[in-house]
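To the team - phosphoenolpyruvate complex, inputs and output below.
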Amino acid sequence: MQKLKGIPASPGVVMGKVFFLDKEEFEIKKRRIREDMVSKNISRFQEALAKTEEEIKEIRTQVAKRLGEEEAYIFDAHLLILKDSYLIKKVTQGVKEKLINVEYAFFQVMETLRETFGSMEDSYLKGRAADIKDVGRRVLRNLLGKERETLATLEEEVIVVAHDLSPSDTVSMHKEKVIGFATDMGSKTSHTAIMARALEIPAVVGLKNITQKTQAIDTLIVDGSHGLVIINPDKETLKRYKKDKESFEIFEHELVKLRDLPAQTLDGHRVILAANIEVPDEVKYVKEHGGEGIGLYRTEFLHLGRSDLPSVDEQFEAYKEVARELAPHPVIIRTLDLGGDKFLSYLNLAPEMNPFLGLRAIRLCLADIPLFKDQLRAILKASTYGNLKIMYPMISGAEEVKKANQILEEVEEEFKKKGIPFNKDLEVGAMIEIPSAALTCESIAKEVDFFSIGTNDLIQYALAVDRVNENIAYLYQPLHPAVLSLLKRIIDGAHKAGIWVGICGEMAGEPLFAPLLLGLGLDEFSMSPIVIPEVKKVIRSLTLKEAKELSRKALKLSTAQEIEALLKEMVGKIMPEVTT
Ligand code: PEP
Ligand code: MG
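Output:
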């Protein structure tokens, strides 16, 4: 038996036989061709492109039918790759000028493209390498006259294990046969992970080397809720997971019923459960899971993966869509949080030694006022279409908020002068995610209408632990007493100043932490849509009095382990599924 830890991409537990998807690697041999074979090679290339185009269009139609237009758009990108004039020119040149076989010419060009994208820092662009590989494999299969490898014709239930899965692999999976998957690569925001959640197939990604470890797998357990994979489990583990699986299914079924119920404690204390989104497409998940609006809209995702800045109108359209869809619920638009691990090549910023401590988020916006003003214009323009609020990220003290508000006022003046309508009572908030902001929150509170605590960053800055460095991940402790004490300080500070306070870091979506966060006094929790029902269930299972008692006890403990044990003891009683 062997346990591997990866990234929980889609919740649920499954166990079963394994199907290796990536076994098929085409062997492409370089061959010299005679001049009279050039035109035959080129026409074979054109035929393969045409056949591939048909295949992709067919998948696109299926996906649009099964999952909706939003999920199908990725195949438009695949079609664009296929029609790329650079690609076609390079392959044709290779065949004509170097007199090499078309398979090899094509393979070489695709590999270069894939490597270029794969080595990009921007995680969105990096992710496109998988799309290039996907399209490349399809064309090669057609060039080589091979049958299309498919997950649609599987005869029995399997768990798919692959180095990486493309969106089209994922979508051709039939839920009745592919009961789960596990991959070496991947992140929570990859298209594959998004589709796994949409199809509700339990999945673990980012396992690094599962394809190397699984030579002799009889049975595999995929625990998508905890990001765990167990190879050849012993009888006892298998029995335990079978039980877990049953309880998870009953539990999920029960959770659906909670969708329209309020997030209210047994003694009548009501909080708001909102969602974090990156792109407007995610709004449907928010609705499905009963999210009461958006607590964090990471707007910088609109700027990633492209070669120029989005126009004011483009930004406006995106904000308007989300505002309209969710009205009357609030939508908190976070102004650009670029920098850190989210770079734009077209902004031409100097490389930094410590990007997380560098020209990031509000600092960048205050250094590039035209960029900032354009976003504020788009937000103001969209503000009459729903219940929008603005939130500034990476605030380190009151001065930055004052500066940002000053710029907002300038844009408002501009709108007034031009007679453009906007919501004059637009609420403005600050993210509290830097310890200096936590420690001076009273003065920041005077400048804003609300706070939202960004624990992802607050933890990294308070504990001096890089949030993306796997080697020190064990030190990244959300329950560290220092983090709890900062949370208490921020929440009390906000309430004393008469403003509300929410949380939008990943901590908000941990059902285990919910009683503690509730007891500390948070008014709003914002998280990935899929976890909303679970957190709601915990909140609805206890009293505010119990939660307060728990947080008082937790604040007196001296280690994260002790605090975790305390939380497990309490949550274990109301929702054992969460603590196992
Ligand atoms: C945070 O830091 O907790 C947060 C929600 O923002 P991001 O993860 O985008 O930095
Ligand atoms: Mg942050």
